[in-house]
Amino acid sequence: MTTIFVTRRDLREHFRSPKKWPDNVVFYPAKTLKLPRPLHNLGGSHHCTDLLNLGGSYRIALVWKEAKTWDRRAIYAHFFYQIVENNLYPLADVHYHPGHKGLHILLNCEDQRNLSNRHLAGAKEFNLKLDKPIDPQSDNDRQRFLTTIGKRLGITV
Fold first, then answer.
1. Does residue 121 sit in helix, strand or coil?
2. Which of 24, 129, 147, 148 lies most in the core, judged by the most C-beta atoms within 10 Å?
């Protein structure tokens, strides 16, 4: 498989391309879904969406981690470009860890590795600001997370 090299300009164009949230974003216990790589091993305390179609070849999967205490919870968004069926190329991962790191984004930009169907470990990482903390277990706060990442990734309601 050919490695796709994403430049800053390419990434900017991906973010500017038209994308729209589906009408209904529903989270399920992760063990009940059959998600493609790289999300195929989720289970236990994770809840996630199906792989959501944002229009064109853009897909996103959302995951939140359940925990007894707020500081151990987390929420993630995995933003992909689907090259062909069963071949997802990651463009960005947005993570929120309330206990230690806050909101941050990992970008697949100017990386020589073939990241098809993989996570963005070791990718360029940038901190993002939030107006107030998010509780991933709260439906309202998950909606705020969607709104926040939608602005960053160019996804409209």
1. coil
2. 148
Cβ contacts of residue 151 below 8 Å, gap of 6+?
none
DSSP line for 3-24: PPPPPHHHHHHHHHS-EE--S-
Q: Please tell me whether the peptide bond between 38 and the residue prior to it is cis, using omega within 30 degrees of 0.
A: yes
Average pLDDT on 132-137 reads: 91
Is the model's pLDDT at 2 over the cut of 60?
no
H or E element at residue 141: helix 139-153
Per the CB < 8 A criterion, the answer to whether 73 and 145 are in contact is no
- What whole-number distance in Å separates Cα of residue 102 and Cα of residue 96? 5
Q: Are 75 and 45 in contact (CB under 8 A)?
A: no
Ranges of H-type helices in 2-128:
8-16
Of the candidates 40, 96, 109, the one whose C-alpha atom is nearest the C-alpha of residue 65 is 96
